[in-house]
Amino acid sequence: MEIFYEKCAVNVQKLGRGNNFGFLSFFSGRSRTASVKSLEFTTVFQLTREKFIERLEDYPSEKVLFENSLAPNSFDRKHIV
User: pLDDT digit string (tens) for 18-29?
Assistant: First the structure.
């Protein structure tokens, strides 16, 4: 897998087995700034931010940690309540 910026066709990083990507957008709720392409056959597991927040309802103390770990202006709290 390779992370790259489409706008300027710059390759940023190559990823290998066990690496992850998309976490900045996932945790901040903002649009992604880079893209990822597979360089070979790849298995990818997806967890949407919405499903993650939904599952946090079962873990109130972790939900508080998640909310407190983000920059105050990086997400809309109404989506978490």
Answer: 888 888 888 777
Residues 63, 39: Cα–Cα separation, whole Å: 36
74 contacts 48 by C-beta, under 8 angstroms? no
* Four-CA torsion 81, 69, 58, 24, nearest 10 degrees: 90
Separation between Cα atoms, residue 67 and residue 65, nearest integer Å: 6
Task: Write down the residue that tokens 């978490």 correspond to.
Answer: 80
- What pLDDT is recorded for position 58? 93
Tally of domains within the chain: 2
Contacts of 5 (CB under 8 A, 6+ apart): 12, 33, 34, 35
What residues make up the domain containing 7? 1-44
Tell me the pTM.
0.58
Residues 64, 81: contact at Cβ < 8 Å?
Answer: no
